[in-house]
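seq as requested:
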Amino acid sequence: MSRMDTVDVTLGTHTVPVPKGGYYDRFRMNPDLDEVARDPRVSDVSFFRSIPKTVVESPIGTTLTPNFYYRNSTARLTYLAKTGAIRSRLPRELDPLEVAPGIGLAFVMFFRYDVADIDFYTEAAVGAAVRPARHGHVGFADLATALGNNHLYAYVMSLPVNTQIAQVRGHDGYGFPKWVTELDVDIDDAHTSARVANDTGGTDIALTARTPKQKHYPSGSKVGSLTSYTQIGDDWFSTLSQTNVLASGVQLLPRKVDVELGNGRVSDDLRSLETIRPLQFEVATEVQIALHLPAPISVAKRA
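struct tokens:
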């Protein structure tokens, strides 16, 4: 995108470019949902009408939360992984979610945000499922529940994006490990592909697969959430992401998902989790998201 196509906006101590005439330039996180509904790329906005936005002070300045994502597609490959390896990558205050003795869940995800309050961008993530903070003595998780989207808790180790506004908001505002890189995500009813570039332009991680057969859902009938834990300084926060799935499909024990691990932070993080085998491949060709700013939480301090 050329300089003539952008305007500069200030987020905290950063100045970043955004598309001129885009959603952020026009609405500054306070969208006119009636106007959004007229966007031909957006099929429905009823999910967002039930979620009020509030004004908050944050490290990126005064802003509105949650951040709305009106049309998106996502892919998540979930692995069985060794609990010991997961634990070695977690802060001491968090515990891996176990589905069997010594076995936890790791994941790599890819996101394509086509229409959003902060405009188009792409993203990838590597992380692991964890127990809720201050969970107490809880037995092994039911596998079906752990794989579902009803409410998953996670700790993310890498989260590259391809735009500066997404990096600044994600890093400064949410405490996520975000950086900017070349990142392509293409998802349709037939194929799913993604590639994250490393610092030299080579492949960090790449994925190609056939898209699982999609099932369509009325808006509001398949709503789930993800809580991610982050540390900002010495303080702990939880970030809630609400998802409204409009079309998705799942493959259990997938055999034809091609993952290329190259050289880079994302591949290094996935290798460090010592994955055992892919367990589930889930692709949503249409999903809507409301991403809330982090809220402070109490976690058990451990020596």
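The helical segments are 23-27, 33-37, 46-49, 83-89, 143-147, 164-173, 265-272.
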